[in-house]
Design brief:
The protein has two domains: about 70 residues, no CATH class; about 260 residues, Glycoside hydrolase/deacetylase (TIM Barrel, Alpha-Beta Barrel). It is built from nine helices and 16 strands. The strands form four sheets. Strands 1, 2, 5, 6, 7, 8, 9, 10, 13 and 16 form a ten-stranded mixed β-sheet that branches. Strands 3-4 form a two-stranded antiparallel sheet. Strands 11-12 form a two-stranded antiparallel ribbon. The chain is elongated, with a radius of gyration of 33 Å. Bound molecules: zinc ion (ZN). Zinc ion binds next to strand 1.
Length: about 350
């Protein structure tokens, strides 16, 4: 019997000890779990019912303040801007085609920088009343069209292009003359012309100085994207201020084949815009009036126009880009540079 009693006693002591261990274990586990819960859920939602109103308010305000601070400290989202630059709009040069292109942008609600050659072989923008009136009206009424200057007379001199290598005084004279004519026609409708686009993508430092002195704010030529291409603007200058001018060089040519004027397919344009905006923050797409014409005649190539509309639709449909003119981009860029 004694043996049985001892066994019973021992077994009851052992059960008690087990129970104690289980209870302590349960307490430890619940403590660990509750501290983990608090760590993972810093919102204190489950605790609010135990807080006084003041404590609750303090915690809520604290959380709101913290959240606000986080939002203001967040870096701004990278710019994904697409700019269309239409070159070679000129007095008495393919007026029907130029008009159709501009109207396409208006229909789609996409901004366009229209780069005008002020002097086409002696015919100036003052002589082409129809073109001037049309552009004045749509630029003023839509707010989507920017009037820019594309060189002076688009002549290729032996020094290379219209400006490169020519004396500073000569460059300044023709740049001032072009701006004077364009401002005369457009400035009371759209404000002064502020974008200068280089003909033949050929310029030198005197061109930059002359453009600045003539009152331009934006300088646009072609970005040198690879060591082997004929772009002249180094990437460090592109989308940055240099000599007081914002450099916004075209970095994508809408045309795939320069002899047939075949356009890039819509998906190629979309992919390139993604790549260029990722690289530079802005994708400047350049094209010319004649590229949507019927073999340089003043008739629109309707197949190309449809393809072109598909390009615009695909970029708009992607919902990833912001479309701007060079001058509207400049306003934002200069505000960011001088906060
Ligand atoms: Zn040109």
């Amino acid at each position: 019997m004694d043996v049985i009693k001892v066994i019973l006693k021992t077994s009851s002591t052992s059960n008690m000890a087990k129970s104690v261990v289980i209870v302590i274990g349960a307490i430890i586990i619940s403590l660990v779990l509750s501290s983990l819960y608090t760590t993972l859920n810093p919102t204190y939602v489950t605790r609010t019912e135990y807080l006084t109103l003041t404590e609750y308010r303090t915690q809520t305000e604290y959380r709101t303040l913290t959240e606000t601070t986080t939002i203001t400290r967040k870096p701004p989202p990278p710019s994904r801007t697409v700019i269309f630059r239409l070159d070679d709009v000129a007095p008495r040069f393919l007026p029907t085609v130029a008009r159709e292109i501009v109207e396409t942008f208006l229909r789609k609600g996409v901004p366009l920088t229209v780069a005008i050659v002020p002097n086409n072989r002696g015919i100036t923008i003052l002589d082409d009343v129809e073109l001037s009136l049309f552009l004045r009206t749509v630029a003023k009424n839509s707010g989507l069209i920017e009037i820019a200057m594309h060189g002076w007379n688009h002549t290729e001199y032996p020094t290379g292009g219209e400006f490169k290598g020519r004396p500073f005084e000569d460059q300044l004279y023709y740049i001032l003359e072009g701006k004077r004519l364009l401002d005369h026609v457009f400035s009371n409708a759209t404000g002064p012309v502020v974008t200068f686009t280089v003909t033949y993508n050929l310029y030198d430092e005197n061109t930059v100085k002359a453009a600045k002195q003539a009152g331009f704010k934006i300088f646009s030529s072609k970005l040198k994207q690879h060591w082997w291409d004929n772009g002249v603007t180094p990437p460090t200058r592109h989308n940055n201020f240099h000599e007081g001018l914002l450099f916004l060089d075209w970095n994508f040519y809408l045309i795939k084949d320069e002899t047939t004027f075949e356009l890039h397919a819509a998906n190629e344009v979309l992919e390139t815009c993604r790549l260029r905006t990722a690289l530079y923050g802005v994708c400047v797409i350049m094209f010319h009036v004649q590229e949507l014409s019927m073999n340089w005649q003043d008739r629109v190539d309707l197949d190309k126009l449809r393809k072109f509309e598909a390009i615009l639709d695909s970029l708009l449909g992607a919902g990833e880009f912001e479309f701007m003119t060079m001058s509207s981009y400049y306003l934002r860029r200069s505000a960011a540079a001088n906060p």
